[in-house]
């Protein structure tokens, strides 16, 4: 199996894309640590996946919680080989109506949370001279979207962060890449009104929304040794929406 005995930490792994990645990694032999703010769903998801999957309650916006949880995982499994920074939120509003709080909530979780978890994990990756980091960005971070200035800025930030950390860690055999999904069927996209969904579908040459498995397959490749010479890249995964 591709990830045999690798230890993988996945943030936001309780549901949606993160749960899909957790399931795929477990199928490939990884020991998976799902870290999520939603303890009820996370515990259920970990139980339902075949393989070795553990749940840890974590708000990635809290530096203290991030530090303690990563320490706990390192103590329990002695290493972390793979980090998938997937947890993310939206809080959509036109800029004219966006409060500083709306802005900060999204930046704090999507961008600062990604920074905090990465910082907590990389020391051990550097020591072991091995690591795979996959950051889940978004096509919105590449092209922007009306009503999502906070989200777009956070995801564009994740892309800049990915490239910078990739440069810092390349010589230590730690690769850092980003996936920029288009529209993927999860509870995040469930709330989009039907009319808007139809308009978005017209922008996708392949004529469908993506599935969590589509993202999980690319995350698996970027977390495996099959991608060992790839770092600092951003992969759009969007049915051809952004070319
Ligand atoms: N669904 C899409 O179309 C799409 C497109 C592009 C990018 N993305 C990105 O993919 C990632 C996953 O999104 P999804 O669609 O699966 O959404 P989702 O809402 O189904 O899952 C997000 C998960 O993150 C967790 N989470 C939220 N805040 C957290 C916090 N502070 N600490 C820890 N966990 C937290 C949630 O509990 C949830 O389990 C996000 O970063 C999102 O921005 C999604």
Describe the structure.
The protein is an alpha/beta fold and about 240 residues long. It has a single domain, classed as Rossmann fold. The chain is about 50% helix and about 15% strand. The protein has nine helices and seven strands. Strands 3-2-1-4-5-6-7 form a seven-stranded parallel β-sheet, sandwiched between helices. The longest helix has 29 residues. The protein is globular. The model has no long low-confidence stretch (mean pLDDT about 95). The site of nicotinamide-adenine-dinucleotide (NAD) has 29 residues, from helix 1, helix 4 and helix 7.
Notable characteristics:
seven-stranded parallel sheet; single chain; alpha/beta; Rossmann fold
Task: Map the helices and strands.
Layout lengths: L6 E5 L4 H12 L3 E6 L2 H10 L4 E5 L5 H15 L4 E4 L14 H29 L2 E6 L3 H4 L5 H21 L4 E8 L5 H4 L3 H9 L9 H12 L10 E4 L6
Parallel strand pairs: 1-2, 1-4, 2-3, 4-5, 5-6, 6-7
Helix pairs in contact: 1-9, 3-4, 4-6
